[in-house]
Q: What sequence folds into this?
């Protein structure tokens, strides 16, 4: 029977291990094919039994790619803590985005600065970018935003206006799921701009010619409405194109509007099976197409490109370069009617993952991109931004918390211009005469930095006022002086509160007034010194008497309290311990007789349990101090008896010390025959029982 049970256990264990191995293999296969929503539950099950680098890395990445940044942060943190030597910069980068998503901006920026391989110039620029973000944040909410009723519980994004309709991407209501995020494949939907803000607005498929069983999104239309460009998976004429890893990349398609319908759908010639092109946008003159791609030559995972449109042909893709692109991800370009390039980036320092940035085209070059600010940008992904300069109205998409689904479309109205300024404060005040309290004219006021470099020098007018405009978070020193007056200064350390007015008002004192006051003060000082001497003598005498009186009272009170507490401790001890008794004004610990061999003093075996009881009592009361008194009967020589009792007392003390009683709590004394219970004079007057009473060891409690 045992063999059968063992065999069953082995078979079960083997099957369990095989099942685990199969689940992990399936998870890895799903992950490689970007089926992240399918891989996550298998990896979550796998980590219950093993937490290898590969499993944790893939699980964290799967959460990251499906925008579950809370769980991504959890597993990236575990990965960095436990596999530091195996991870590269990309994981610190993703970890920083996950941190921002959960509201930990400071730690995210510190991770980026400390763990990324930055040169000294890059660190300086990084710190400057943090300041710029703070300047943008100080503008507050630049936009009014509204979550549109057309949003669903799935992902809706990429709104673009086409005539009187709003065109956007949203999952179809089919059973076919996209394994990346476990949602249905995207189609282009259309809704009337007159109805889309109403809760009862109904969206319809944009075009059965454009929509397929694969993804379609991010449409852009020419002004005459006769041509459109949009993003679709590598799918044309019913055939799905894939790369060598069986991944179907995104491509940009075009279509023509003829005779009331869309036709001539074709993949643009710069697409490829091996990389993605996506998110088309048109320049104002419609002669340039902007898009995002991870094609060879990209600085990062996706870059923004432009390409010239020549009738029915295209030029060569041009990377917009490091002013716009980073070594990470730039996507969703949009060119406004005033020629500004808006796009989303997670490589430029921002408030979250993908943030919306804007750049202006000047002299054929794009300027350094600037974050558009709150509340369009959040700690999550914000993208697919469009705006009309004429109305300051537009749309963007975001996966921020509080939406209806994964990604939601928001309508925006820009309320404040994007004017980025460094934080500034004011240092101001009035220089006055300390005595008269009146403003001082012709006073010199100097502003210095923390290195004592003179920054500004002014001379006050009749009102004595001064004012300096300075940068926040710096230290300054303000010095004031005037002929025939004392000098004065104030040091200020400024915080980051914008437009704060720091008062540096100061008083200066006339030197002539000081001389007058010094003469008066000298006379008063002499009189005061005399009065003080007399008073001090009187106080010293009173104090001496009081101290003597108080000392005597304290001694009496302390003695009284000590006596009361001692009595309480003795009474408590007597009530609790039956072996403690009073005897002729002494406190004794009663014990059975302690026997010693004739003329010897070592502790006999049968005496140790008796002594151990006393030891345990002393350990129970750590403050107890005991004297061991050893006594003999009157028989024998007095000196001999005294010496023998002393040795027996000391031997007993050593036993106590060896058993954990501190030396200062146990003392010993040999009394010989000097203290008898029964007076045996002469010695023949007592019988053996009476001599035995006199021959004893006593344990006298000296303190408790």
A:
């Amino acid at each position: 029977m045992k063999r059968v049970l063992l065999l069953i256990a082995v078979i079960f264990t083997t099957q369990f291990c095989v099942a685990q191995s199969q689940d992990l293999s399936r998870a890895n296969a799903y992950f490689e094919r970007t089926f992240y929503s399918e891989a996550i539950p298998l990896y979550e099950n796998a980590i219950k039994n093993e937490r290898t680098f590969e499993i944790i890395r893939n699980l964290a990445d799967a959460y990251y790619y499906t925008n579950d940044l809370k769980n991504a942060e959890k597993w990236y943190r575990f990965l960095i803590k436990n596999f530091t030597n195996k991870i590269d910069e990309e994981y610190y980068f993703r970890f920083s985005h996950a941190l921002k998503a959960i509201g930990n901006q400071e730690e995210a920026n510190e991770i980026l600065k400390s763990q990324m391989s930055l040169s000294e110039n890059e660190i300086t620029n990084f710190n400057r970018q943090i300041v710029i973000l703070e300047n943008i944040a100080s503008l507050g909410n630049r936009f009014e935003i509204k979550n549109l009723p057309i949003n669903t519980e799935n992902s809706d994004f990429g709104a673009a206006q086409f005539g009187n309709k709003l065109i956007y991407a949203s999952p179809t209501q089919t059973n076919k799921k996209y394994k990346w995020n476990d949602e249905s494949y995207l189609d282009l939907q259309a809704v009337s701009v007159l109805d889309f803000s109403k809760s009862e607005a109904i969206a319809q498929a944009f075009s059965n010619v454009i929509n397929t069983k694969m993804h379609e999104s991010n449409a852009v239309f020419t002004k005459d409405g006769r041509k459109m460009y949009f993003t679709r998976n590598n799918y044309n004429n019913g055939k799905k194109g894939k790369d060598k890893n069986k991944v179907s990349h995104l491509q940009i398609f075009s279509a023509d509007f003829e005779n009331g319908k869309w036709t001539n759908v074709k993949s643009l010639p710069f697409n490829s099976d091996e990389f993605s092109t996506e998110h088309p946008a048109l320049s104002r003159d419609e002669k340039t197409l902007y898009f995002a791609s991870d094609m060879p030559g990209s600085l990062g995972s996706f870059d923004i490109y432009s390409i010239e449109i020549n009738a029915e042909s295209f030029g060569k893709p041009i990377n917009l370069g490091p002013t716009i692109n980073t070594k990470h991800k730039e996507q969703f370009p949009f060119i406004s009617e005033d020629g500004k390039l808006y796009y989303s980036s997670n490589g430029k320092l921002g408030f979250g993952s993908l943030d919306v940035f804007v750049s202006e085209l000047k002299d054929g070059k794009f300027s350094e991109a600037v974050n558009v600010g709150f509340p369009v940008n959040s700690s999550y992904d914000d993208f697919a931004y469009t705006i009309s300069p004429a109305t300051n109205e537009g749309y963007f998409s975001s996966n921020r918390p509080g939406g209806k689904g994964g990604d939601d479309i928001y309508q925006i109205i820009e309320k404040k211009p994007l004017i980025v300024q460094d934080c500034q404060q004011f240092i101001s005040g009035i220089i006055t005469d300390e005595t008269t309290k009146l403003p001082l004219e012709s006073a010199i006021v100097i502003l210095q930095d923390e290195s004592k470099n003179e920054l500004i020098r002014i001379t006050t007018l009749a009102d004595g006022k001064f004012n300096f405009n300075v940068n926040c978070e710096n230290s300054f020193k303000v010095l004031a002086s005037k002929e025939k007056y004392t000098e004065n200064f104030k040091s200020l350390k400024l915080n980051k509160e914008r437009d704060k007015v720091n008062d540096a008002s100061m008083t200066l004192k006339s030197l002539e007034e000081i001389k007058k006051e010094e003469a008066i003060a000298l006379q008063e000082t002499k009189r005061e010194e005399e009065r003080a001497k007399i008073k001090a003598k009187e106080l010293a005498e009173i104090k001496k008497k009081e101290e003597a009186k108080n000392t005597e009272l304290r001694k009496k009170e302390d003695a009284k309290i000590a006596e009361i507490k001692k009595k309480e401790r003795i009474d408590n001890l007597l009530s609790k311990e039956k072996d403690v008794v009073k005897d002729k004004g002494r406190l004794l610990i009663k014990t059975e007789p302690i026997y010693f061999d004739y003329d010897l003093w070592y502790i006999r075996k049968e005496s140790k349990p008796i002594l151990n009881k006393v030891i345990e009592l002393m350990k129970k009361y750590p403050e107890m101090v005991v004297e061991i008194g050893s006594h003999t009967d009157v028989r024998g020589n007095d000196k001999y008896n005294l010496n023998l009792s002393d040795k027996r007392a000391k031997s007993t003390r050593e036993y106590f010390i060896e058993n954990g009683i501190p030396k200062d709590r146990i003392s010993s004394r040999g009394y010989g025959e000097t203290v008898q219970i029964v007076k045996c004079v002469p010695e023949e007057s007592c019988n053996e029982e009476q001599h035995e009473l006199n021959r004893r060891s006593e344990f006298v409690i000296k303190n408790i």
